[in-house]
UniProtKB/TrEMBL annotation:
SUPFAM superfamilies: PEBP-like. Gene3D superfamilies: PEBP-like (3.90.280.10). CDD domains: PEBP_bact_arch (cd00865). The lineage of its organism: Bacteria, Pseudomonadati, Pseudomonadota, Gammaproteobacteria, Pseudomonadales. This is Phospholipid-binding protein, PBP family. InterPro entries: PEBP, PEBP-like_sf, YbhB_YbcL/LppC-like.
Length: 207
């Protein structure tokens, strides 16, 4: 299976147009264009009945006490966890492209609706938890929301963009399902998958 995330290059920085947060000299971070990248795929295996798209950051601090705090840094030695940015499942087998900006075009305060979207079914990304304490932003974040790592993190973050070809038409997920639910539901149903890994940082010392 051949997969392309247009504008996302292996080992290179994610372009700012796909980011939730972009570097700001005055405020460390400001909202970015937050567009989902175009995704295309071809040559899926015989027997493919649906596709899933997953994008996650594998470098999120497991302890958030110092995240985005003036005068502090997030140590590169803190254990890291996965943070899901995009979950799309039950994409029909007849689909081979998700256009740029189709699932997200700008930051949506308080989030976007989970469930059936423009293409497939949207899961809930981890901005739902990350922004829960912010009264201006708290809500359920469905679909795509791009990179926005801590601006004081000593570690450059890695973002994994994945497409899965599945042998079922539906994963049977509904409601506000998350990334771990998607991974569990896909077990035993993956015919093929492809991944592109890119990087992103808001730390001016690492840019």
């Amino acid at each position: 299976m051949k997969v392309q995330f247009n504008g996302i290059t292996e080992g290179q920085p994610v372009p700012e147009k796909f980011a939730f947060g972009v570097y700001s000299e005055e405020d460390h971070m400001s909202f970015g264009p937050n567009r989902n990248p175009e995704v295309t795929w071809q040559d899926a295996p015989e027997g493919t009945k649906s596709f899933a798209v997953v994008m996650f950051d594998s470098d999120v601090p497991s302890v958030a006490d110092d995240v985005n705090q003036e005068g502090k840094t997030v140590s590169k030695d803190i254990p890291r966890v996965d943070f899901f940015h995009w979950l799309l499942v039950d994409i029909p087998a007849t689909t081979s492209c998700i256009p740029e900006g189709e699932d997200s075009d700008g930051v949506s305060p308080k989030g976007k609706q989970a469930g059936p979207g423009p293409i497939g079914i949207r899961g809930v990304n981890n901005f739902t938890q990350f922004l829960a304490g912010n009264p201006d932003m708290a809500g359920t974040y469905g679909g795509y929301d791009g990179p926005c790592p801590p601006w004081n993190d000593e570690l450059v973050h890695h973002y994994h963009y994945e497409v899965y070809a599945l042998d079922v038409e539906t994963l049977g997920l509904d409601g506000e399902f998350d990334g771990e639910a998607v991974r569990k539901a896909m077990e035993g149903h993956v015919l093929a998958s492809e991944r592109v890994t890119a990087t992103y940082t808001l730390n001016p010392d690492l840019r």
